[in-house]
Amino acid sequence: MSLSLIGFLIIVVIVTLLISGKVTPIVAMVLPPIIGALVAGFAFTDIGTFFNDGMRSVISVAIMFIFAILFFGIMQDVGLFDPMINKMVALSKGNVIIVSVVTVLIAIVAQLDGSGASTFLITITALLPLYKRLKMNPYLLLLLIAGSASIMNMLPWAGPLGRVSSVLEIDVTELWQPLIPIQVFGIILMLTLAILLGMKEQRRIIKNYGSIEIAVAAEQIEMDPEINKPEPDTKQNPLARPKLLWVNAVIAIAVIGVLVSGLIPAGLAFMIGLSIALPVNFPSVKDQMERIRAHSANALMMASIILAAGLFLGILNGTGMLTAIANDVVAVLPSAIGPYLHIIIGILGVPFDLLLSTDAYYFALFPVVEQIAAGFGISSLSTAYAMIIGNIVGTFVSPLAPAVWLALGLSGLEMGRHIRYSLFWMWGLSLILLATAILIGVIQV
Fold first, then answer.
1. Nearest residue to 66 (alpha-carbon basis) of 278, 384, 302, 350
2. Which tens digits make up the pLDDT trace of 171-199?
3. How far apart (Å, rounded) are the C-alpha atoms in residues 297 and 278?
4. What is each CA distance from 359 to 26, 174, 305, in whole angstroms?
């Protein structure tokens, strides 16, 4: 069997296993490549060499994930973001448009830790009672959270960029910096969308009830117990450190500032930040260890997936399978399509999110597209940015994202209706960001 065929079969098996959800990403990315390498005639000693090469390419990303998740987990624990979120909730009451805008702002703040699950937990818990009281469509809540969290998912420690940097073997901060203008523009677009959809929602409520006041009164008459849910309160959180709020804010800002500057590797920045934040907030060693244990499951899961991907990429690169696949596809691909392949994949990025998991998209599809595009003279970074920007906005509309199911459970909504309500807006947002990236030169054509 040819190397390209074996490599293609490995990728198909991995994608199938990841989509099926019957095995963890670690299993999917460890066993098939090893079996494929053995079938291709490579010995275990060769596989060991590929493993070492793969680990060298991803170890810095794995370290960053571990300490970034621990650091932002501690910041959430001590209530760094609570006052800002509570204030925004308080300011939004009674005005549908302001509620929509505040939803975007809260989701942006909540997603700073890179965890979609915590973003939905914080935002839905804080705002769903308000949406119900104002008779606002709860699917609008999910749409605004999903879009805002996806834009923030371009942060280096959020996941997609870490995966891409491990494939390209470049520093994740270096990969992120050209995306900052796209993120800023994306946030502006989300705020604009919140205003437009908020106005549309306000018209719908007035049409159905006569006025916002009557809608609120009707909700109160129904005596829905969700109305009287207390807003998040840092006093109810035993881990909150309100007296250290500004100290923690300075620590967080300093870490992010160092990260943006590129002065030191991202992993080291978070390692130092965590080492300062832990004793400042939890003087007891026992409490420090307890907080690390509380967040270690998420940290180790992300790091282990990255390391497993390192083996997969090490084997595909070391055996020459990836190059063979690219060469064979370039040989049969029409020359008119080749130079625009990365743009085409970027345009289809959001629909791909409905079919492929994040790991399958970045660890299976991206390396192949990158190699093929390189054969037509397209830089690896242009391919990376096209696929990231094109796909990332659809992250929290996908049924393959566990955080989305958590959001549906918290809000009592349905996946099908969420996709129907949100997909059009998310895909449109993705296409606008993709076109912007091309216009400003982030993506080369």
1. 302
2. 888 889 899 999 999 999 999 999 999 99
3. 18
4. 10, 21, 9
Give the CA count within 13 Å in the CB-facing half-sphere of 48: 3
How far, in Å, CA of 346 to CA of 430, rounded?
9
Q: Per-residue confidence at 414, pLDDT binned at 50, 70, 90?
A: confident
Place of tokens 């080749």: 338
* Under 8 Å between Cβ of 316 and 33: yes
Token pair in block for residue 274: 């965590």
Instruction: Tell if the pTM clears 0.85, that is, is over it.
Output: no
DSSP character string of 310-337: HHHHHHHHHTTHHHHHHHHHHHHS-TTT
Single out the residue of 329, 347, 346 nearest to residue 338, CA to CA. Answer: 329
**Contact of 347 with 390, CB cutoff 8 Å:** yes
Geometric angle at alpha carbon 262, from 279 and 431, rounded to 5°: 110
Encoding tokens for residue 8? Answer: 């293609």
Mean pLDDT computed over every residue of the chain: 83
Q: Which two tokens stand for residue 48?
A: 């060991």
Dmax of the chain from CA atoms? 75
Task: Map residue 386 onto helix, strand or coil.
Answer: helix
Separation between Cα atoms, residue 302 and residue 61, nearest integer Å: 10
The encoded tokens of residue 355 equal 């079919």
List pLDDT tens digits, range 53-104: 888 877 887 887 788 888 888 988 888 877 876 776 677 666 889 989 989 9
